[in-house]
Amino acid sequence: MKKMAKKAKLKKTNDERILDQHHIEYVETHFDWINKGKDALAEAATMGVDPKSILKTIVLQANKDPKDYLVVCLPLEYELDLKLVAQQLNKKQVHLADNKNLINITGYVHGENTPIGIKIRKGFPIYFDERIKVFEKIAVSAGKIGRSVLLKQTDLVKLVAGEYIRVAE
């Protein structure tokens, strides 16, 4: 008699464990934006998740100061206006952090960055595109490429002591 294969239970990411420790409800989801691009958004839509509620996490460096990093979360398909972000935060200038050095800056490689772990481990200030306020639930990276968590927007913003700003006109 053949044994039926058990469905493999995915090991929780460190960021999912942080959510568990803070008693924040979430649903694990998969949106592989890095490899699938817009197809990942179409998949999300078929699962009932508004593609504009899926956020990317952008790490910025202000004033070329090696200690002045900040994080902006905005919908995947949107771009940010670096001059506007600098103006909103009263910084002389902001630019994208060095992608090749992200692991040393945040502890994550490109595509894994999440406001959850970055805030808890690094303490960087976290900002959210004010356009996400309309969504009850949003999705952010779970700290692993292609893996996300869907959770209440207000729970995430509170956990990371986030602020809303305008990131584009």
SSE topology:
Blueprint (H helix, E strand, L loop, with lengths): L13 H8 L4 E5 L2 H4 L1 H9 L8 E8 L6 E7 L6 H7 L5 E3 L5 H5 L8 H8 L3 E4 L7 E8 L2 E6 H7 L3 E3 L4
Parallel strand pairs: 3-5, 5-8
Antiparallel strand pairs: 1-7, 2-3, 2-4, 6-7
What does this structure look like?
With 169 residues, the protein is α/β, with parallel strands linked by helices. It has a single domain (14-165), classed as Alpha-Beta Complex (YbaK protein). The chain contains seven helices and eight strands. The protein has a five-stranded mixed beta sheet with strand order 4-2-3-5-8. Strands 1-7-6 form a three-stranded antiparallel beta sheet. The radius of gyration is 16 Å and the shape is globular. The termini are far apart. Belongs to the prolyl-tRNA editing family. YbaK/EbsC subfamily. It holds the Pfam family tRNA_edit. Its EC number is 4.2.-.-. One of its GO terms (molecular function) is aminoacyl-tRNA deacylase activity.
Structure summarized in a few sentences:
The protein has 169 residues and is of the alpha/beta class. Helix content is 28%, strand content 26%.
Largest sheet: 5 strands, mixed
CATH structural architecture: Alpha-Beta Complex
Structural class: alpha/beta
Low-confidence stretches: 1-7
Enzyme class: lyase
Keywords: Lyase, Protein biosynthesis
GO molecular function: aminoacyl-tRNA deacylase activity; lyase activity
Domain YbaK/aminoacyl-tRNA synthetase-associated: 38-159
Describe the structure using short key phrases:
8 strands; three-stranded antiparallel β-sheet; five-stranded mixed β-sheet; 169 residues; 28% helix; alpha/beta; disordered N terminus; YbaK protein
